[in-house]
Amino acid sequence: MLVLTRRKGESIILGDDVEVKILELHGSQVKIGVQAPQSLSVHRKEVYLAIQRENKAAAQSAGKPPEKPETPPEGEEPKETVH
Amino acid sequence: MKIETARFGAIQVHEDQKIRFVQPIIGFPTLMEYVLVDTGGLVKWLQSLEDASVVFPVVDPFAVKQDYDIEIPMSDAYSLELKRAEEAQVWCITVLSSNPAEMRANLRAPVVLNRKTGTAKQVVLPDSSLPIRYHFEPAAIHGNKEVAHAGSYA
Q1: Contacts B57 to A, Cβ<8 Å
Q2: How much is the ipTM here?
Q3: A64 chain-B contacts, CB cut-off 8 A
Q4: Does the predicted TM-score (pTM) go above 0.95?
Q5: Residue B85 CB neighbour total at 10 angstroms
Q6: Which of residues 14-53 of A touch B (CB under 8 A)?
Q7: Within chain B, which residues score under 50 in pLDDT?
């Protein structure tokens, strides 16, 4: 993993057309701005993972025999913090 | 073309019924082509054409939540070449369960289809108040003739 130190207002550039900028710092929270082409999807990781888990549960539920009860949900989608 | 599926056996799929994902369904990165199988109930099925064992139960979100109201982000509308709302068909991926209280649909990340082009995408909506797990009781849904457990869909 590449590790870079940045200050508030500084950016990194990914490829030719993606910019990730540090907008604000508040204790352990960082506000990040992402400028990317419309074709590139940007997700909060916990939301992405929750959707992925749900998709897999859905596919699995369709393949299972209907008598078998589903496993209970493993906790709700994590609360979103301010970026 | 004839497609073998784990759930439905061999099914006939015409070229114009194919749904091509511009981005794969999250968690299923290698599968790009699907077909919608309608068995007549509330739940319909998004069957992979590339993996016989992969099928997603889907529901019309407006059937399970009448006030479901979304705005498809510009970037997603652009990648699906959607120009008007009528061109879009929206499906929510659903987890089936023999316990009706555990049936749930993902309202946050619906599958949006452009009916004209047959292209689709799982769109992650920016509205974080939309639940990824929206519980609904199939029996409570008006016009749903099926019994309230997943067994009836088998």
Answers
A1: 58, 61-62
A2: 0.89
A3: 96
A4: no
A5: 10
A6: 38-39, 41, 43, 47-48, 50-53
A7: 146-154
